[in-house]
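JOB MANIFEST
job_type = single_chain_structure
chain_count = 1
residues = 256
[input]
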Amino acid sequence: AVGGRKKLWPKPEEEMSAVLASFGVQSPVRRVSWEGRTVRRTRVRSSPSLDSDVVEDVEEGEVVRCSEEAICPKSTTPRTLTARGWISRKMVDLAPDGVEHFAVKQVRIYVLSDVHADHAANFRWLEERLLPKQTTKGECDVLLCAGDVAANEAVFEKTMALFVRRFDLVFFTAGNHDLWKAGGSSSSSSSFLLGERKATTSLEKLERLERICAATGVKVGPAVIDCDFALRGLVGGGGGGSETTTTTTTTTTTTT
């Protein structure tokens, strides 16, 4: 339901073309498919142009479903097509209810996996390189940790602490080595799990790791980061790989 009226979406291609043509739009920049809420009261226009007729106003907090984006001739901010007309892209918050939203000037996104910190040499490698963060106001360093950190829960906790010390935001998804039950004995348990019996299944081990993440400030769910970003690859890839850096810069909303 959009604005209190039920809509079937997406519409058939020919019907959508007719709708776009009625707005005077022949070649939208790109087709999109996402939903968000308006961040404040905003005007709906009949086409992407700021000179087009005002159709109506959309109140703050209304759910809108977007199907097309186009660039307005007088602005670099994309205009997005909703069921009610065209509105400014910056007036829509993509974050679903309950999902954290971060708005910063610039973010650097680092991707790291397969560190296997159970091996002492690997843990030392991380300690030497993950120095305390030095980001300035408006900057945000984000780590996407793609698994295989450690089977040993105590080592897992210490490694996550290193990540949190270095990065402003840390996201974790488990790999197969993280879920090995052998790493959950009482002698190797995290300080947050002392006195608890070891995990008897990998799913139980996953739940324990998520509790460690929650205690150390590591995120295991989605978030929206609205900013300019640079994507940097550090190391990883199935037990091998070297230190590399690849950088791409654009302006976007990144959902993790």
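[summary]
The chain has a mean pLDDT of 74.
Helices lie at 13-22, 120-129, 153-166, 202-216.
exit_status = 0
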